[in-house]
Structure formats: C-alpha cells, structure tokens
Amino acid sequence: MALSNAERQRRFRAKRDAVPAEREKYLMKGRERYKQECNSGKRKPVEQLAEREKRPIRKRWRIQKRKDRARERETRNIFDNIQTPVSSSDERQSIRNKSSIKRKRREEAKVYRDKRKLEPEVSNLQKKVAMFKKRLYRKTEECSKLTPDTPKKRTRKLLRHLSSKDAKRSLFKCEVIMEAIRRTWRKEKGQSRFYQIPLQSNS
Fold it and tell me: Please, which domain of life does this record's source organism belong to (predicted)?
C-alpha cells in the first residue's frame, strides 16, 4: 500500500529529528528564514502583531518546546543506558551499604553538633542549680537560728559535728556533772525530793 504524502512527511520529520545535529540544522535554517522574511517585510515580527494573532503562535511555540524537551530527555536516557553498564546485585548492594554509611555519618555529625550547641546551656543550668543549693542552705541556717534551741536540737548539733570518740567524752562529762548535781540535791532536799526533779538520767 502506497504511503500518503502526509505519512511520508511525518516519517521524514521523525527520521530527521532523531539525529540531534540534523534537528539543530533544521531549526537554524528556520530562524534564518524567519529573520529574512521579517527584514524584507514579508512577515511581521511577533512583537508587532496584535494580541489575538500572538496567542496561536505562542501556543504553537509552547507545544513545540514541550516536544523538544521530551525528545531531548529520550535521547539522553538512551545515551545513558548505552554508556552505563547494568550493575550486578552485589554492586547494587554495595551502593546501598555506602549510602547507609553516609546517612549514618550525617546523623552522627548532626547529633555531635546539637550536643555542642547544648553544652553552654547545660553548664548554665548546672551553675544555677549550685547557686540555688547554696541559697537553700543559707535559708535553712537562718531558719534554724530563729527557732528555739531545744535539748534535742543541741544533741543533734553535738553529734553532727563531733566524732564518736568526742561524743562519748562529752556524754561522760555530762554524766559526771549530773551525778554531782544529784549528790548536792540529796544532801539538801533528801532522797525522796531528788527522785521528783526532772534531771533524772535514763542510763
């Protein structure tokens, strides 16, 4: 079956456009012809046309530009497939492993940077905690001075600041003094009166 004129033209254009150099040569001739026709007055430049006449021309340009970009992508993909050999499964696994290692290193670097950024803040918080501890200690000391000094409190203070040996010595002295006081009271008030005084020892 014989081809129609339109089909022959379509095949001719497809064959011509398949070669980038031939396609560029055709476009260059078209641009030169357009300039010559504009200079001779046979055709008006697009910028001199009315807005109604510009719209179909620009539409054709956009369609042609999309076709050109699609053709360039297809040609580039074909060229890349020819140049790049098909990688084996081991090579693909190696690429994935390298990508995983890079990602892990990026995450570790980010954690390190975040840690360095937070160090001054942590240091300031530690200083504030120490400062508030000192304030609390001073307030506690002030409050303890305002409360009455009871025998129980004096005993705690004595045991807090003395060693075991010093505490035993102090308690022994207290017992000696208490015994002396008891003897004095026995002589003055008698045995029955002595057992009623609040200075009795529980030892």
Answer: Eukaryota
